Amino acid sequence: MMRPQTSQQLDNNDHDCDRRSVLQSLGGGYGSAVVAVASYGTGTLAAGATPLPNKRTVNYPRLHPGLRVVGNASSNLLCECFVDFCCPYSRKLFNTLSPIITGDSHDEPQQQIALVYHNVIQPWHHQSLWLHESALAVRVLYPEAEMAYWEALFVDAPRWYDENVYDMKRGDFYDKIATFAAGVVENHYNNNLQKSAIKARILQYLIPPKQKGGNFPKEAVALLGSGPDDDENALFPLTKQVVKFQRKRGVHVTPTVFFNGIEQTQISSSWTSEEWNDFLREACAG
Q1: Residues 6+ apart with CB under 8 A from 139
Q2: Which of the chain's termini has less CB crowding within 10 Å, N or C?
């Protein structure tokens, strides 16, 4: 008698086409892999990439999920913050904590700490997925501008809250958020990149290939494991990884903060800079 398949087995069999986990075929980061592609429009694989296998591979992401903020990346002290772009409380925490960690003073405890922000897609905000997809597109295409985009998106967050986008269709939302993201990226690179070209590249990753305006980025086959015949967009495999990571960590509400893997339930989004500094000093002293 055959046993029923587990949810993991069913997930691994969800498509007939070959799949590749995030960065499975590449040793470098998202951005370095994209840069290594000789021509975006020809479908040429990145340097060092191997052909896709005949069978779907085990999920071995090359990079730890999340946005690693300026800090001591080799530190044994890791602070992880799970946030949602649609959450006003996440916005409070981000805008308070980020300047502390990225401060210039080498005498403060924050210089000993690595800070990582993790994407949390909250289903009760229908546009949450679309906002996080825009951030993932920037991560893949323009990694040096990723932190700048997070900062700009949290500053501009109320513009994208439920009451302001309720009647907006998915395609219209993608167009507006791609325009916004392209402006941030253009400013980050001091206008050395053309805004219209940036927007077009971002939309390649946002619009599903079978939908109107779809233009699948061929390099995404090697980069992310997506394909031109997918019903969803090129970022879908990366989105699944982000959601799985959040669920495996048991994160429900945002923001949620972990320090060296342990949830810090005493931390509040209403904490001031002084309260954060007190916490960080105590954490470093321990």
Answers
A1: 30, 31, 67, 146
A2: N
Q: Count Cβ atoms below 10 Å from residue 89 Cβ, excluding itself.
A: 15
Tokens of 215: 């233009």
Single-letter amino acid code for the residue at 229: D
Where b means 16+ CB within 10 Å and e means fewer, 48-70 reads ebeebeeebeebeeeeebbbebe
Alpha helices in 142-216 (DSSP H): 146-155, 162-165, 170-188, 195-206
Task: Give me 162's structure tokens.
Answer: 């439920």
Read off the pLDDT band of 68 (50, 70, 90): confident
Total Cβ atoms within 10 A of residue 186: 20
Q: How far apart are CA 161 and CA 87, in angstroms?
A: 8
Residue 272 phi, psi dihedral angles, 5° rounding: -85, 175
> Whole-angstrom Cα distance, residue 100 to residue 177?
28
* Amino acid letter, 58: V
Q: Which tokens is 151 given?
A: 């900062």
